[in-house]
Amino acid sequence: QLHRRGFRCLHGVDGSAGMLERARSTGLYQELRLCVLGREPLPAPAEHYDAVTVVGALSEGQVPCSVLPELLRVTKPGGFLCLTTRSNPSNLRYKAELEAALGQLERRGAWQKLLAQEVEYWERATTEEESTQGNGYISGVVYIYQKCPVP
């Protein structure tokens, strides 16, 4: 979808070499690097990217909320960050921690929230207990922030 909307210079990171190989096979990425988000710095200089996305990884047992300052570090002032998380029962504690961290960075003037949109049919649930509305799907949230210029 990003490529269809004009984004042509795409870089990706993942903690799994197998997922990087899958990404490489698409031919969409100019650069792919092995990096475990939240455990090591992103392999990019400060203020390097116009936009940073994290989709499907901000959840319990995956990427910790402590990654947020590192995402901001590599985003240009005025650049955008698009982040997602799940709203299923097993992720509610993480989601609350994430939203607290997002709000704290906003109150400190690091970024401005442009959107927080609930998505009812985010992904298929693997169990009935995880189905948010009993419809076979997990709901989620898309957050879009704009990094504030440094005064």
UniProtKB/TrEMBL annotation:
GO molecular function, one term: S-adenosylmethionine-dependent methyltransferase activity
Gene: Mettl27
Name used for this protein in its record: MET27 protein
Gene3D superfamilies: Vaccinia Virus protein VP39
Alphabetized SUPFAM superfamilies for the sequence: S-adenosyl-L-methionine-dependent methyltransferases
Domain of life from the UniProt record: Eukaryota
Organism whose genome encodes this protein: Certhia brachydactyla
Coiled-coil segments: none
Signal peptide per UniProt: none
Methyltransferase type domain span: 4-82
